[in-house]
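queue> pop job 88
queue> type: inverse folding (structure -> sequence)
queue> payload:
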């Protein structure tokens, strides 16, 4: 795969307006379909959840998305991946997931995530080996176990 020129940097309070607009642009459709709230307060609450773990996805110097993850001692989690619509379909999300999973394998930990039902990202997660372990009325909880490559490191 060619170098996408994608980098990550820690989110700062100055990024909040961008992240709010990004969240509305990437999540409103999925939230509405799932019957979840799309009001301003709900967006801000989710945006600020685990904010210290948020990274801005950059293409060159341009902010194009969000990657938020948690790293525990026995399990890691992908909390949010959001890419501006104009940059979707270019393999950026797959690149971010692949890099994260490689690090998780080296650390010897499985990875979990939650995704709204009907979100097309479910297909991407399946391709990376995530399997549904639980469901709610609106979402799927998925988990990817440690791969053999990770066991060899």
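queue> result:
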């Amino acid at each position: 795969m060619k170098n996408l020129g994608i980098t990550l940097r820690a989110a700062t309070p100055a990024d909040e307006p961008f992240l709010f607009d990004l969240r509305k642009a990437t999540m409103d459709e999925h939230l509405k379909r799932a019957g979840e709230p799309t009001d301003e307060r709900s967006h801000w609450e989710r945006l600020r959840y685990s904010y210290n773990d948020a990274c801005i996805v950059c293409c060159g110097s341009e902010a194009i998305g969000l990657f938020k993850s948690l790293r525990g001692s026995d399990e890691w989690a992908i909390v949010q991946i959001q890419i501006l619509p104009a940059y979707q379909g270019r393999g950026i999300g797959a690149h971010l997931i692949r890099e994260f999973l490689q690090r998780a394998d080296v650390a010897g930990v499985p990875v979990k995530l939650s995704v709204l039902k009907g979100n097309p990202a479910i297909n991407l997660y399946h391709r990376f080996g995530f399997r549904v372990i639980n469901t709610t009325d609106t979402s799927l909880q998925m988990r990817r176990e440690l791969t053999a490559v990770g066991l060899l490191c």
